[in-house]
Amino acid sequence: MDKLRVGVIVHFDDEPTDGGKYTYFNTLLKGINNFTFDPQIEIVNIVFYKDKLPKYQFKKQSIFIKEGFGNRIKLLARKLTKKSNSTTFTKRNPVINLLYSLSLKRKNTSTEALLKKNKIDMVYYLKQQEDIINYPFIATIWDVSHKSTNGFPEHTMNYNYEFREKYYLYTLNKAFVILCESQTGVQELKNFYSFYDKKIKVLPFFPGNIIEQEVDENQQKHILSKYNLEKDNFFVYPAQFWPHKNHYNLILAFSKLVRNNHSQIKLVLCGSNKGNLDYIMELIHSLSLASRVVITGFVSEDELLTFYKNAVALTMPTFLGPTNLPVIEAAALKCAVLCSDFEGHRELLGDNALYFDPGDASVIAEAMTKILDPTFREPMVQKAYDYTTRSPFNLNNSLRTLNEILLETKSKRKSWGVDYSL
Questions:
Q1: Residue pair 197/177 in contact by the 8 Å Cβ criterion
Q2: How far apart (Å, rounded) are the C-alpha atoms in residues 50 and 246?
């Protein structure tokens, strides 16, 4: 009775092609299951599945809940829209929205009863999640991009803004604790919304499991050959083709670099298409860069690791912060980092990266030119790597911090029992 039993909500509904949120969720889930928490804390995986039990090996106690009709409604919406993310269609279509709401209410009622039966004190959402259970919860926030950037279509069109705003205005205010990925993220959240200050905490950002993997030299050579690449002769940008990822200005910058006596250098763009690829391809062809820009689509972790280890630099001109996963992954893998000048990026890497205005192609090109000099690049790479070894932005520190947050939360949450009802 004295332990704080925390149910970690597990939905395997993201795909590797979803990028950072998939990496964050899976890295943290694995870390939580491997970590030894204080004896006062007990972690229980609350695993929702579709038709078959997941193959994932959970090291801690798990409760499995089979998804019902609501999941099939989402699948129907996905087929109708031919998109992996069908949330907006589900909400906009009144018939599907009604069916989904009814099924969700039924699922949540049964889930809440099961949580109470198993004496779960509170649940923890490892990622931003719109549909939450009527239960004390810990929320995760990565950004407030619909507020903190210009009106990019993925944030503002097709009711995306309204759905996000509802989450931040209403759902988050119900959270017992709100976890942000950096101090910059905390400040950004406070800039746009009013919350009880003491329930906002920093759970430090961390690189994905990719930094622990190894790819032998022969395999790396094979991967480079597959894409017709040479070591230290290409830049890499792992990002899905969303408008806010700003491939546009990167291509303009790369065009300037190629015209300035660097005609053999290449640019590798790896990531799934989120609606902007055709537009970027048109730009590439209009600038006669088709032979210099390598569009790989989604790549495996072995391939991405190879790109990091052999590229001149990661070049990340995204308009969206405050932080981004590739920045700390690249530094940890001894790949030079060129990135947008965000306060969050500086919180991650200090002075150990080249920062630029992502809206200025000339400045991006200058940074790319500067990093080509190995006498400048190699010391910066080593300094950035050394900085990551001392940085709080790593998984072990995040798990220790989580343990402290849960211990701090315990005395407040234990002030009522799981069977309490108004």
A1: no
A2: 36
11 with 131: CB under 8 angstroms?
A: no
How far apart (Å, rounded) are the C-alpha atoms in residues 77 and 50? 16
Phi, psi of 356 (to 5 degrees): -150, 165
Rounded Cα gap, residues 413 and 422, in angstroms: 16
At position 52, the amino acid (one-letter code) is K
Only one residue has tokens 């961390």, namely 206
| Alpha carbons 317 and 326: distance in angstroms, whole number | 12
The whole-model pTM stands at 0.89
What is the pLDDT averaged over residues 151-156? 87
The model's pLDDT over 344-357, given as tens digits with 9 standing for 90+, comes to 999 999 999 999 99
Cite the beta strand spans of 271-410 per DSSP E: 293-297, 313-316, 336-340, 354-356
| Cα(278)–Cα(257) distance, integer angstroms | 23
Coil, strand or helix: which one is 338?
strand
Task: Give the model confidence (pLDDT) of 356-390 as tens digits.
Answer: 999 999 999 999 999 999 999 999 999 999 999 99
Name beta bridge partners: 266: 234
